[in-house]
Structure formats: structure tokens, C-alpha cells
From TrEMBL:
<keyword id="KW-0456">Lyase</keyword>
<dbReference type="InterPro" id="IPR001015">
    <property type="entry name" value="Ferrochelatase"/>
</dbReference>
<dbReference type="Pfam" id="PF00762">
    <property type="entry name" value="Ferrochelatase"/>
</dbReference>
<comment type="function">
    <text>Catalyzes the ferrous insertion into protoporphyrin IX.</text>
</comment>
<dbReference type="GO" id="GO:0004325">
    <property type="term" value="F:ferrochelatase activity"/>
</dbReference>
<protein>
    <recommendedName>
        <fullName>Ferrochelatase</fullName>
        <ecNumber>4.98.1.1</ecNumber>
    </recommendedName>
</protein>
<dbReference type="GO" id="GO:0006783">
    <property type="term" value="P:heme biosynthetic process"/>
</dbReference>
<keyword id="KW-0350">Heme biosynthesis</keyword>
<keyword id="KW-0408">Iron</keyword>
<keyword id="KW-0627">Porphyrin biosynthesis</keyword>
<dbReference type="GO" id="GO:0005743">
    <property type="term" value="C:mitochondrial inner membrane"/>
</dbReference>
<comment type="pathway">
    <text>Porphyrin-containing compound metabolism; protoheme biosynthesis; protoheme from protoporphyrin-IX: step 1/1.</text>
</comment>
<keyword id="KW-0472">Membrane</keyword>
<keyword id="KW-0496">Mitochondrion</keyword>
<comment type="similarity">
    <text>Belongs to the ferrochelatase family.</text>
</comment>
<dbReference type="InterPro" id="IPR033644">
    <property type="entry name" value="Ferrochelatase_C"/>
</dbReference>
<dbReference type="InterPro" id="IPR019772">
    <property type="entry name" value="Ferrochelatase_AS"/>
</dbReference>
Amino acid sequence: MVLLERAVEVAQRLEGKAGPGTIDWSVIDRWPAHPGLVNTFASNIEKTLAEYPEERRSKAVLLFSAHSLPMTVVNRGDPYPAEVAATVYAVMQRLKFSNPYRLCWQSQVGPQPWLGPQTQTSVEEYISKGQKDLVLIPIAFTSDHIETLFELDKEVIGESGHADTVKRVESLNGNPMFIEALADLAKSHLDSGIACSYQMGLRCPGCKNERCAESKKFFVGVQDSLAV
């Protein structure tokens, strides 16, 4: 939401200079089950699974890892966990549920409760149970950065003591299949004539943040301007 608020601030400043109504805004705000996105994730997972001996391949546990949220954000009704779960389920459908899987969460900071289970804890607990073939999938990230290259590769896998059996799926990065998906997403969005989804104008049930409220008003205005 912080990124959306900043985007709205930029939009408002630009309109302040250009004049109200002089810029047509269009927002691609959610695409958790886009076929191209799903196929790219699934293809990368299949490549990593192929690194395991055939007799162990289908028993490797797929651990989808996404950036966690404070429970205060989850409890006020943020749709992020459900949309991440939608991506996970779509990917598993594409894989025909070939492996057992779980969704876990990473990058918790501070003492307050966060959405769990945490990725590192999940890896440690599975290993303690004797499950050492684990495939980490950074499901809510589109490119490599500190949370994949350091947190997953160095902290989670590197400290697991089983870097030979705990593997990470390659991030989407510049995968041609993913780039094609982005192009298709942009074209489909423009062809639809829909400025942004109605979801963008809806506040969370427990939202008390006035900055968030202002950003939601902006997106409702984007929807209304197109309708007119």
C-alpha cells in the first residue's frame, strides 16, 4: 500500500502541473493467476525438480515463499495473502499437484506478530522431521534481490546444513515467457478499456489509515472518469 500511496502522490503532482483531467490514468493492479505468470513459475519449478533423482522427485516438498505481513495488516482485511495463495494454487494446478506443497512467509522484522509460518522456520522443522528434499519458490517476487539472493540463498539454504537437497527455484527475472506474459497483460488491459479494477477503490474493512483512504478516492476517480 505504501507504493500505491506514493504512486498516487506522483499522479496528483503531475496533474497539479498539467491541470486536472489532462492525464488519463490506467492501472494494472492485480494479476495473480495470469496464465503466463503461472506457466513461467511452473516451468522454473519443473527445471529444479529435474535436479532430484527420479525416485525422490515427486516427494520433494514445494515451499512457496512470499513476503510476510504484520498481523495487524492481515486482520484489517488486506487481500494480499489471498491473492498470493491464488497464485500458488494456480501454479499447483498447472503442475497437476505433482508434489506436496505449503505456502510460507519470509522477511519478518520487529517484535510484533507476523503472518506465518516463517520460511526459515519451516525449512528447519521439515529437516528435523526427516524431510530434506525441499524446493523454495519465491512466489511473490518477480526478480532477484536481497530477499532471494541473501535471505533465501544464504540464510535459509546456506544455514540449513543441507544445501545439496534444499534448492531454490530461479526467479522470473528476464525469462522470455515472463516478458511475453507482461506484454500480454498490458495489451489485454488496454484493450479492455477498464482503467483499474473495482478492487482498487475498496478500503479494507478495518482500515483506519487516512492516507490509504485518499489513495482509494483517487482510484475511484480513475474508474469514474473512464465511465463518463
